[in-house]
Amino acid sequence: MEPINILTSTAVPLPLPNIDTDQIIPKQFLKRIERTGYGDFLFFDWRYDLDTPDHVEERKDFVLNKPEYKSAEILIAEKNFGCGSSREHAAWALQQYGFRAVIAPTFADIFFSNAGKNGMILCRLSEDEVKTLLERSTANPEHKITINLEAQTVTDEQGFNAKFEIDPFRKYCLLNGLDDIGLTLRHVKSLDKFEDKHNKEFWSAPKTATA
Amino acid sequence: MSKAPQSAPKTLFEKVWQQHVVAEPEGEPTILYIDLHLVHEVTSPQAFEGLRMAGRKLRRSDRHIATVDHNVPTTSAYDRLHIVDQISATQVNTLRKNCADFGVEFFDVQDASQGIVHMIGPELGATKPGMTIVCGDSHTSTHGAFGALAFGIGTSEVEHVMATQTLPQSKPKTFRITVDGELPFGVTAKDIILDIIGKIGTDGATGHVIEYAGSAICALSMEGRMTICNMSIEAGARAGMIAPDETTFAYLNGRRFSPTGAAWNEAVAHWKALPTDEGAVFDRELHIDAATLAPAVTWGTSPGMTTTIDAKVPTLEDARSEADRKSFARAYEYMDLKPGTPMEEIKIDTVFLGSCTNGRIEDLRAAAAVIKGHHIATKIRAMVVPGSQAVKHQAEKEGLDTIFKSAGFEWREPGCSMCLGMNPDILQPGERCASTSNRNFEGRQGRGGRTHLVSPEMAAAAAITGHFTDIRKWKQAEGAKR
Ligand code: SF4
What we know:
The structure holds two protein chains of two kinds.
Chain A: E1 6-14, H1 21-24, H2 44-47, E2 74-77, H3 89-97, E3 101-104, H4 109-117, E4 121-124, H5 127-139, E5 144-148, E6 153-156, E7 161-163, H6 168-176, H7 180-184, H8 188-199
Parallel strand pairs in A: 1-2, 2-3, 3-4
Antiparallel strand pairs in A: 1-5, 5-6, 6-7
Chain B: H1 12-18, E1 21-23, E2 30-33, E3 36-39, H2 45-54, E4 64-67, H3 77-81, H4 86-102, E5 105-107, H5 117-124, E6 132-135, E7 149-152, H6 155-164, E8 166-169, E9 173-180, H7 189-200, E10 208-213, H8 215-218, H9 222-230, E11 239-241, H10 246-252, H11 261-272, E12 284-289, E13 296-298, E14 306-308, H12 322-335, E15 350-354, H13 355-358, H14 361-371, E16 381-385, H15 389-397, H16 400-406, E17 410-411, E18 432-435, E19 450-453, H17 456-465, H18 471-481
Parallel strand pairs in B: 3-4, 3-6, 4-5, 6-7, 9-10, 9-12, 10-11, 15-16, 15-18, 16-17, 18-19
Antiparallel strand pairs in B: 1-2, 2-8, 13-14
The complex binds iron/sulfur cluster.
């Protein structure tokens, strides 16, 4: 995982609440067994004209397809972003498309965790703050936003300045690009000890009897 | 007189949580032990690959169970063994190979225990009270019906569980929803949970574990409890739980992976200590009077867009916020519905009976009782997809398949099927479906498809009349005829 701290970029405004993971990456792409190559399928049903052969024609009216938003690394949306299924493909698609951060008033739990494990910053700001940023990025695609993870702030050149909350451990992992498995294995002694005791509690074993 | 409590009263969730704490490192999430990990073909390949790349093994291969459900065709046994879609076939074959390589017990397409992953855990007796259970699938919340702490995870976490049998977790908050009283005639578990989601919204329980309690919940069968816990995620909850009781023990007794003899008695003694203590405090509470409930139908593109069969498609004035108004407007267009249309006037094209929400034997029995002696309306396409091989066999033993087939339903092989349409079972653009599944998102059952979530009885009645029908009137009319 790539460490991340300060991100300055233009942003794509997607002013909709409850954007679910089925929209972020539709199910037909979940059949793949690879971990990469999902960026092209991000928001597939919204992004492409599905009536054209092979669905390759981009819909010009969809914000992601507007040339002025192509290089943005921040996505801004309304409340409950990432609700629905647990597919980590949604985080992979956003990240592989080029997004490194999402700003919204609230996020669904599983998506929040998945995004963090893929090195993305998710900033929870108030509805009003998000509204301001949505308006500025809509009015001016060149509008730049700076996210400072260390300071936990979101700022812009027009004086916008908001704080966001983040769990200190998650922040530490993002700043240092740490992978969770390695971190957990620091506790392998406690784990061995726990498991010894826990093994004797047969109700905890999924397979205690075989027919 | 009872003894003074030794410690503060605890909730069911807190007890299960505490019994699984491996370590609580300062300033970091708790390391939680995971008793059971369920595996399916869609969210596991990248995790197995990650293990291979890091040269890691499964810490405890006996704590994983795998099956195939999302991708498998439901048309015939032959089609399941010869999957035409090459990408789906590769995914299924990859799971076969991964399970063999890593020593995971695998229930393949034709195995008598195959089925939707959330069906087979309980059926095998692998799901038990007091356990921690995870799966790379959001509807893992289903298993909470047994008093287990069960939640969906992403693929990175799947890999984490495989390597360490633990997960770093921050402690969620608790939310008790108490449903007291007797359920009115024609109202089911599905209607309870749809009503709850309608009330609190699709993000109403974000960050919380819900415990469902109250006399209406206790009176439910295990099937009904699973339906409720299954859709907890649709309210944004991390998990849903119901305290284990005699109904739970009766269900588990004699299952393949249930303890036997003295071990069974000891297990039951442990399980009996799990329910929430008198006086335990929850972060939030909600009370619902069962008598106020009516059969539910969703009208829009999120499970929170729910109303009752005797109501109308809500108008913009009914929206609670600016954001809701925007979603409503979008939903009218996608669903091709006018605000103010009575729900009973909405005509349907397709009926889907199945999924991990309502693909259980009790669901099929309830639907069969409605359609017995009737035929589906002209131009309607209706299918029953049992959630598992076990359900399919049981239903066939009871002759339910004959009832469905003579009413014009297709009788299919087990799998996820049209719940999400990863296999060939999909809606065509513009088709309107009465579905017993759990999600009505745009395109969920096929691009441009329009999904209305209902109970199995309501789906059955709609199949016969061709439009949404109040099951309460239907049942009364039926009763009068006989
Ligand atoms: S039946 Fe539907 S919700 Fe359940 S596991 Fe399968 S796809 Fe997911």
